[in-house]
Write a structure and sequence with these properties.
about 260 residues, flat, about 65% helix, Cytochrome Bc1 Complex, Chain C
């Protein structure tokens, strides 16, 4: 005959608090909400992430903030869309000269929701390029590149260049006639640059001519190198935005303190 040992006692801090007189019995949703709150509190007690989250999310914004200020967030979400859809496309894509086109055809015509995901990735790249130009235009015309935000402007300019490089490297990946010859033209144009141009072309081609490793080189740059750099710079960009704040629209004038006006008279 097996002896069944009693269950260990529950610690006092883990026992649910007793109900107050007249208090209704908690529902399943209340229990779930209390459990979620306890889990978040447990994580925050050990990581102290709530302070950083409050510093990032709860801050003052200048008077006159409007929808133009959401272009940066829209660009970031466009990048997240590219990253998510790119992961799903990479599950079926084969970056080899013999199978690249066939794998792209399989994604479009046979994979479940493949045409939808590829369409989101294809047109999402265009949307991201448009949004980042609009965002930088807004920053320029609102004068948000001036002191003390010069470094953030430089980071944004680098993000613009990386976005264009990601678009250029991704154009070859379907490996059809149009993308092949368009990429050759683009690489040859890069080769005409002073000093580093020829070296840059050799780097992109993975050699002096287009070969079997060129497609793999473009795929590695497009899938690994550029997204990692963009993600890191977006983090730095958001940190500087939270630290330095945003600028008010140029058509709004700062209101002077009445006391200062009296003293100036």
């Amino acid at each position: 005959m097996k002896l069944k040992l009693p269950a260990p006692p529950i610690p006092e801090q883990l026992k649910p608090a007793p109900r107050r007189p007249g208090e209704r019995k908690p529902s399943a949703s209340d229990t779930l909400k209390e459990g979620g709150t306890s889990a978040v509190a447990w994580v925050d007690e050990r990581t102290s992430l709530s302070g950083g989250a409050r510093w990032m999310m709860f801050r003052k914004v200048p008077k006159g903030t409007n929808w133009f200020y959401t272009l940066g967030s829209a660009t970031m979400f466009a990048f997240l869309n590219q990253a998510m859809t790119g992961v799903f496309l990479a599950m079926y894509y084969d970056p080899s000269p013999t199978n690249a086109y066939e794998s792209t055809r399989f994604i479009t015509n046979e994979a479940f929701l493949g045409e939808f995901v590829r369409g989101m990735h294809k047109w999402g790249s265009t949307v991201m390029v448009i949004l980042i130009f609009l965002h930088m235009g807004r920053t320029f015309f609102f004068g948000a590149y001036k002191y003390p935000r010069e470094l953030n402007w430089v980071v944004g300019a680098i993000l613009l260049i990386l976005t264009m490089v990601m678009s250029f490297t991704g154009y070859l990946l379907p490996f059809d006639q149009r993308s092949y010859w368009a990429t050759i033209v683009g690489v040859n144009i890069n080769g005409t640059g002073p000093l580093v141009g020829p070296y840059l072309s050799d780097f992109l081609r993975a050699g002096p001519d287009f070969g079997a490793t060129t497609l793999s080189r473009f795929y590695a740059i497009h899938m690994l190198l550029i997204p990692g750099l963009i993600a890191a710079l977006i983090g730095a960009h958001l940190y500087l935005v939270a630290k330095l704040g945003t600028t008010a629209p140029p058509w709004l004038k700062a209101e002077s303190d009445p006391e200062l006006r009296k003293e100036s008279k």
